[in-house]
Write a structure and sequence with these properties.
By secondary structure, the protein is of the alpha+beta class. Helices cover 58% and strands 7% of the residues. The protein has twelve helices and five strands.
């Protein structure tokens, strides 16, 4: 059973540094962290379920038009299997956990897209993730040529560029740009999954434990925002680990001092305040 935090996180870090990171495995290891450990059989069962779903797709062949692949995935996953999402799913941590989304067939756009991508990839489809701001979708075909987009959160509804623009505008108020259609790399997807978990927990102060492990997994990725170190230090102080939090605040201040001296001084004051809590 993957209930050893150190071993589980070592496996996550190693998987993230593979030449070709296994997106499904990394998402399942996030689930294991959330659930305090998953039996090896549970991890295998999730991968087997993805294999099983891929086996239900028609044998289209690699030369099939992108639209035919999108239609086949929508018919299977959005139709027969009823994978989709609803506004209520944004309120559930389970909506960000791959094993739970496979079981419930409900989840956030990004986790539903992971399932689409993993099933389609196993079947030989030219599939990729599209990290639109506020709403993750999938693409089929050549991202810089002939391609189609689909929204797994809406059962696989096909998306025109105009539709995608409306999604982005509704989520962020920002206009669509061509760069938004670039394929998302596996580690970018995992970081976004963890960002969603952090945001879910940040809105629930009683779940600072979830926010902390999501930050700590994010820090194990080869590339991550430096400010996550500050977030972890703040969380440690909030959770009563004053000495460790103060030490990490000082380390963060040292790191940013050459470029942000005023911010570094402010962080050092926070470290002093945290140490004062020990008295």
């Amino acid at each position: 059973m993957y209930d050893d935090t150190t071993g589980r996180r070592r496996q996550f870090a190693e998987a993230a540094r593979e030449d070709r990171p296994d997106l499904a495995l990394l998402c399942l290891l996030v689930s294991a962290e959330a659930e305090g450990g998953l039996r090896e059989e549970a991890l295998d069962a999730a991968q087997i379920e993805l294999d099983r779903l891929a086996g239900l797709l028609p044998a289209l062949g690699r030369g099939a038009p992108p639209r035919r692949w999108a239609e086949a995935l929508a018919e299977l996953l959005g139709g027969r299997c009823d994978f989709r999402g609803s506004p209520a799913d944004y309120r559930r941590l389970e909506s960000s956990l791959l094993d739970e989304v496979l079981r419930r067939r409900r989840g956030l756009p990004i986790l539903l897209s992971v399932i689409w991508m993993e099933v389609a990839r196993r079947a030989g489809a030219p599939v990729y993730g599209v990290a639109l701001p506020g709403h993750f979708v999938v693409g089929f075909g050549d991202p810089y040529g002939q391609h189609v987009l689909a929204d797994p959160f809406d059962g696989g509804r096909p998306l025109s560029e105009e539709d995608a623009g409306l999604l982005v505008a509704g989520a962020t108020g920002a206009p669509l740009s061509p760069a938004m259609f670039a394929p998302a790399e596996p580690l970018e997807i995992v970081l976004r999954v963890l960002n969603n978990i952090r945001a879910w927990a940040a809105a629930r102060p009683e779940r600072s434990d979830v926010q902390l492990w999501a930050v700590e997994l994010s820090l194990l990725l080869p590339s991550h925002p430096a400010r996550l170190r500050y977030e972890r230090a703040e969380l440690l102080v909030e959770r009563g680990e004053f000495a460790r939090g103060a030490r990490e605040l000082d380390e963060y201040a040292d790191a940013i001092a050459p470029v942000e001296p005023d911010a570094a001084e402010s962080v050092r004051h926070q470290a002093l305040a945290a140490r004062a809590m020990l008295n």
